[in-house]
Amino acid sequence: MSAAFFHIVGRELRATFTSAVGYIFSVIFLAFTGWLVFQNLFIASRAELRFFFELLPLTLAFVVPAVTMRVFAEELSTGSFEVLTTLPVTDWDIVLGKFVGAWGFIVLMLTPTILYPLIVGQFGDLDAGPVVGGYVGVLFLSGLYCAVGILTSALTRNQIVAVLVGWAVCSFLALIDDMLVFFPGAITNVVQYVGADFHFKSIARGVIDSRDLIYFLSAIFLALFGTSLAIERRK
Amino acid sequence: MRRRLQARGIQGGLYVVAAVLINVVAASQFFRIDLTEDRVHTLSAASIAAVSALEEPLTIRAFFTPELRAPFNNIEPAVRDLLDAYARHGGERFNFQFYSMDPEAADAFENEQLARSYLVSPMQIEQLDSNEVTVKSAYLGMAMLHGDLIETIGAITSDSRLEFHVTSAIQSLTTRVSTLLALEEDIAADLYFSGELAPSYSDLAQGVRDAVAELGPSYFGRIALDEIDPSVTPVDPNEAQRLQLLPMALTDGGTGTEQLAYAAVTVTVGERSATVNLFQNTLFGLLPIETAGLQATLDEQLKGLLGSTDRIAYVADFGAPPHRGLTDPNVQPQSTDLRSTYDLLRGDYEITPTSLASAPIPPGAEMALLVSPQESLSDWALFQLDQLLMRGGSLVLFLDSFTSFLADQGGFGGGRTIHIPRDVGIGPLLEHYGLHIEPSYVMDEQGYLQRGRDARGGAVHTEFPNAPSILPAQMATQLPFMRNLTELVMHNASPIVRTEPQPGVTYTDAIVTTPDAWQMRDDIQIDNPSLIVAPPDAERGELALAVLAEGTFTSFFAGREAPQPAPVEGEQEEEASSRQLAADVGTGVPVLVESERPGRLFVVGTTRILEPGFINAQQLNGNTLFLHNLVDYLNDHEARAELRGRGRLVRRLIDAPAAQETAFKTLGIVGPPLIVGLLGLGLWLWWNARKRHIRAMYDRP
After folding, report:
1. Contact across the interface for B667 and A109, Cβ inside 8 Å
2. CB-based contact (8 Å) between B652 and chain A?
């Protein structure tokens, strides 16, 4: 990785951390998930975080595009993108730098949820496996959503359009596994494989399966490659 | 520029193709890391042992219709993954093959014929098609071939507990092959068919002949059919009762005389037999069974006879209910119906009815089961139970403290259930072991909740205090056979109280009530649960409903003379005494033993939980899982018990003070957003301060 890449990562993190939008969405997201997880925790009396991880594919599908919508769209609308392209950085430095910056923010945003297993662990014998698996799955899932969000942001200079398209794509990836009954049998398995929820659920059971990792890595790569194509077209 | 973009577009296309190819290859070449504590997603030790100990090749043929819609689309990949895992441990002796049951395929007919030859039939599944729910015929089954035997799992409708079903089937198959190969005599199939029935029901007899002929090759040709006409060769009534032949009274139209006729087929392996009656008692009287299913029924019976290896001695006298269940529960309302318990256990265990009045516990039985005796147990019977425990065996007692019966409408009690204390003479033995069953019924505020609807469709909940609902907090989940249970229901149970403990014995309250339980001792009225009134708090407390005692017991008969068995009909006392000695010599057991090796005693103060309403061999509910796991544990099959309950473990939260729960709940809801909010506020203040500082630098004159 070049110095330019790290510079862009730092710049992205600074930009996100000094933007009110990121915090607003984070606080809403954390308050919402915390309420859903804990409101019935002691009534259900189950020492597990399955419910929390089941929520994440859909909730993150709304939060992540909101965080990433400004990544390219803002630069394109303000004209700072032209300045960026005159600097001695490659397209991949820009794409990867912005991706890692946004992803880093999402990971940091999720870090306070470490409190959840700590609380549940106080009241029961929590199996660490599904919790570790769940967080590994969240890393990959949020990575995929970030890559998709950045791609949609690179396709338009309008942040609203970027976030709406990002929501649509991420929600599709999150919900498609629950809508398989509507697809013909011949393509059911393919459609299921395309969905991110299917792979996330598999990891969140506490099983790290190479098939799920390869899915996430290849999907992230394709989205980032698409982003690089989009910014090349903008030059 | 355009060329460059075109080239990048082609590059992108190639990347997409590469990504798809990588995912396709990864689907068949993959690895997994199971992070769960109990490795619930990894092949269990029992499964690995089942396939790695194969002495003969085992081939699995899986038949699946391709391109099924959700949720059935996941079953084939799950089966494939599982069989892959077995194959990694099974070596060359484990093979599997998948058959695509596509009706359009060229080999569709051959595959269908093959599947049907293994008794794998298509099942009807519902699918959404063009906004309509349609029914589709689909294959979702597998056949296992080992030696000449076949085990079929005909319908796999879910990928849950798949490993348990496959491993159980493999274990059952390998045990049967070993037993069959070790048989000294052929399997006897005896057709009892009274000549009087022949004119009208000859097709029944022919159905039996055909079924036995069909089954022959699958059992190495070792089934010998014999036909007995009871009208020519009368059947001894005792023998008929032992075999559970259904007697049918026929009246001669001319003379008016009545005689018994039989129509049944029995299959006998060694000393064990099973019977299929060709007529069934129905609401409309006796009706013949369908011969179409006879082959499968006989196959099931043979699987049971060949598959069981562990023997359980069931105490069949002293008024205990029949071990196979009541033939007519209306005739024996006070007896416990063990039909479902027998169905549940017979696949894994040989349940041997034993007359403890006159005979010893049969050799090979490491566990004795005593259920609801109604008459006083003799000293000899107690001695036998005691000696089994001294030898390191397991003694399981399901006892009723009361005899319950419905009073006559017009008589005393006016149609309500009367409960009379029952004493069967086992109290002193139990007290010697440090336990006592109270002559009372346990009521619990946490009773079973029956959910129903009233006439208007509204929800109606009825709580049964006499059926305590047992949650993990009321279970000794440290016991291996209890740890996978989520909920149990007890019914009309008497509390077990610990008295003087025996040194060297560990006592565990396996099942207890909540602290809001009480005893109903006098004037027991539990017919209408809504009339059961809880006593004041001072009279309530936690009560034990099942206790496990494990360790080195001292004999109840220590220092006493060994009792004598009751003479059987026509036998002198001296002969009985010599029979006892012969039995003792035969089993190598001295007359009185003290603490030879650790034994296990499990006592439950109710037998209701063994009845069909609580035990269901087809559907694994909490009570069924508990009973099966208990018997497995007492017969040293912990791995099997663990596999059965795998993935069902629910880890419960401990009970904590409400204030503590509220505090942590608030922390969970408010804590994370507060951390992020404060971080944001801090950064915002710092950022503004910095901006002000920079502005101030420029504003300075």
Report:
1. no
2. yes
Strands (E), A61-210: 207-209
Q: Which amino acid is at B323?
A: H
Of B112, B90, B150, B537, nearest to B306 by C-alpha is: B150
Residues A71 and A98 sit within 8 Å (Cβ to Cβ): yes
Lowest mean pLDDT among A84-93, A181-190, B431-440: A181-190
- Chain B residues touching A206 at Cβ < 8 A: 34-36, 40-41
In contact, B111 and B100? CB cutoff 8 Å: yes
Q: Say if residues B407 and B417 touch (Cβ distance below 8 Å).
A: yes
End-to-end Cα separation, chain B, in angstroms: 53
- Nearest-10 crossing angle of helices A196-204, A50-68: 140
Of the candidates B203, B213, B211, which has an alpha carbon nearest to the alpha carbon of residue B263?
Answer: B203
Residue to mutate among B484, B653, B654, B683, with most A CBs inside 10 A, is: B653
| Chain A residue numbers touching B653 (CB-CB < 8 A) | 41-42, 45-47, 120, 123-124
Neighbours of B159 (CB within 10 A): 17
Residue of B nearest to A230 (CA): B5
CA distance B596 to B390: 6
DSSP character for A153?
H
**What is the model's pTM?**
0.67
Phi, psi of B107 (to 5 degrees): -95, 20
Nearest Cβ partner for B31 among A119, A188, A210: A210
What is this model's ipTM?
A: 0.87
- What is the domain range of residue A110? 3-234
Please name the member of B16, B37, B70 whose beta carbon is closest to the beta carbon of A129: B37
Q: Render pLDDT for A217-234 as a digit per residue (tens, 0 to 9).
A: 999 999 999 999 988 887
Separation in Å, CA A77 to CA A71, A80, A150, A163, B35:
11, 8, 15, 15, 46
Which residue among A23, A122, A183 sits closest to B676, beta carbon to beta carbon?
A23
pLDDT tens-place string over residues A184-215:
777 888 888 999 999 999 999 899 999 999 99
- Strands, E assignment, B5-85: 32-34, 58-64
Closest alpha carbon within chain B to A208? B33
Our count of domains for chain A comes to 1
Residue B102: phi and psi, rounded to 5, are -80, 120
In this structure, are residues A81 and A234 in contact, taking their beta carbons and an 8 Å threshold?
yes
Q: Where are the alpha helices (DSSP H) in B236-354?
A: 237-243, 294-307, 339-345
Distance CA A145, CA A196 (A): 9
